[in-house]
Specification:
Strand content: 15-25%
Strand order of the largest sheet: 1-3-4-5-6-10
Largest sheet: 6 strands, antiparallel
Number of helices: 9
Helix content: 25-40%
CATH topology of the largest domain: Phosphatase 2c, domain 1
CATH superfamily of the largest domain: PPM-type phosphatase domain
Number of strands: 13
Shape: elongated
CATH architecture of the largest domain: 4-Layer Sandwich
Length: 382
């Protein structure tokens, strides 16, 4: 892994413990880099929210972020979706093992949200209730799905979104890093509200456009700041100012949890992508020119070989000046058929040798979602 020299993504990030907690259990890592032998610029952003409070939630969040970043940046890119699944499972194993080795860390865990930008392609995964949003041309989408009891209840119409706001089980997680069963990485990248799971997963590798913004955050923000307020800050302020103002807004409303935001802004398409487009157009132009030249040459060859009317299969009618046998010592005009490859004899008067006969040329021929089985865990700390 080599650090990126000219990032194609601008990064603004901020993490704050909030107004209630005495320490910050959130962790985030952002890496801009290149892989040897691959010219595409890459950027990896991970946001993890530790759970367990006195049971070392911050340790679980740090292990989660380190495992994902170290594993992905050390390998070549073969299958981004499979690689993301694998590193989330690796993080689950690492956190579970660490919790079993130290008694004070038993029961610790972490949520995670990952955005991996390869060239101009976006890949995401998540587990828990840390979120990823996409702002594109004024439309603001939550592209990840919360893995909480509340979200499941809303999906199955047990409660309404309004009832979920202050529900006592609002922070009960159904999927997280560090559970006894390996976490199932969520590979849905949902652009439209009612997309099927299959359609959402097919969105992986979404091509980013200039000006697109990808926001990763923990629930310390989304519990206290509405989606429309996040959109307004992104539209009206610079990325850095928007991140600061959103954290401040959550703090003024109580700041009862740690608050972490990572905002990625697409500046331009990678050079390799632009060159590939130019090369494609050049190849198309060359192929078209070669095809046209071949067509012209084929037409000329056809005209030379078959004559001006190659589709006519009828035998030409001999000229009135042609005869099957030419009597000696008569004047005649020689006519050459279109199939003759001899040079025509100029019309003139001459004396034929005795007993000369002419043979005609041969005739021309014609050819034709169910509930997970993992034990729920609450993110509320004592």
């Amino acid at each position: 892994m080599m650090p990126g020299e000219s990032p194609h993504i601008m990064v603004a990030e901020l993490s704050h413990p909030g107004e209630v907690r005495d320490h910050n259990e959130d962790r985030y890592l952002v890496k801009s880099y290149h892989v040897k032998g691959d010219n595409r610029p890459m950027l990896l952003a991970v946001v993890a929210d530790g759970i367990g409070g006195h049971k070392a939630g911050e340790v679980a969040a740090q292990i989660t972020a380190d495992t994902i970043v170290n594993n992905l940046t050390a390998s070549t890119v073969n299958d981004p979706i499979s690689q993301l699944r694998a590193v989330v499972e690796d993080a689950g194993r690492a956190v579970l093992q660490a919790s079993q080795e130290v008694p004070e860390q038993v029961g610790m865990g972490s949520t995670v949200a990952v955005a991996w930008i390869i060239g101009s392609r976006l890949y995401t995964t998540s587990a828990g209730d840390s979120r990823i949003y996409l702002l594109r041309e004024g439309r603001f989408h939550q592209i990840t799905i919360d893995h909480t009891w509340i979200q499941e209840a809303i999906d199955y119409s047990i409660i309404t979104p309004d009832e979920a706001r202050d529900h006592p089980q609002a922070h009960v997680l159904l999927r997280y890093i560090g559970s006894r069963e390996l976490p199932k990485p969520d590979m849905r990248l949902r652009i439209k509200a009612h997309e099927s799971d299959a359609r959402s997963e097919a969105n992986q590798g979404l091509r980013l456009r200039r000006g697109d913004q990808v926001l990763l955050c923990t629930d310390g923000l989304t519990d206290l700041v509405e989606k429309d307020e996040i959109l307004q800050a992104l539209q009206e302020q610079s990325p850095r100012d928007a991140v600061i103002s959103l954290v401040d807004l959550a703090r003024t409303r109580g700041g009862h949890d740690n608050i972490t935001i990572v905002l990625l802004t697409a500046l331009k398409l990678p050079r390799r992508t632009r060159l590939s487009r130019q090369a494609a157009w050049i190849l198309i132009a060359i192929a078209g020119s070669v095809g046209l030249i071949c067509l012209i040459l084929l037409s000329l060859a056809s005209g030379w070989w078959f004559g001006p009317w190659p589709w006519s299969a009828a035998t030409p009618t001999p000229s009135s000046t042609q005869t099957a046998a030419i009597s000696p010592a008569i004047e005649s005009t020689s006519t050459i058929t279109p199939w003759s490859l001899t040079t025509p004899t100029p019309a003139n008067t001459y004396t034929q040798p005795s007993a000369l006969t002419a043979t005609l040329m041969p005739e021309a021929s014609s050819t034709p979602f169910p509930l997970p089985t993992v034990a729920p865990i609450s993110t509320s700390n004592p």
